[in-house]
Design goal:
Layout: E1 3-4, E2 7-8, E3 24-27, E4 40-43, E5 50-56, E6 66-71, H1 73-80, E7 85-90
Antiparallel strand pairs: 1-2, 3-4, 5-6, 5-7
């Protein structure tokens, strides 16, 4: 399967479908906090079961103080406990 503009192509009708398909997430991780990044897509590896969009609110909010990527649910839930992060967790392709 290929990826085009954030959407996966559908399988051929005759193609065998795998038991479980991997989750696909948007990925944007700046090299430094507040730096620019380019949105990409990534197929989540086994065990990475959610997509996250995390906004860093400390030390100073900035429009570029965020990242998007695949994550483990328990890691995402732990990030939510921080008063300095706003964490959006979702479980469908490209939902972050």
């Amino acid at each position: 399967m290929g990826v085009l503009c954030g959407f996966r192509e559908t399988s051929d009708p005759g193609e065998e479908t795998p038991a479980a398909e991997a989750l696909w997430c948007n990925r944007c991780v700046p090299i430094r906090m507040g730096g620019l990044c380019i949105d990409r897509v990534e197929e989540c590896a086994e065990g990475l079961d959610v997509c996250v969009h995390v906004t860093i609110t400390y030390p100073h909010p900035s429009s570029n103080s965020y990242f998007k990527r695949c994550s483990r649910r328990f890691v995402a839930d732990n990030m939510r406990r921080s008063q300095h992060l706003t964490v959006h967790i979702c479980e469908t392709d490209f939902c972050n």
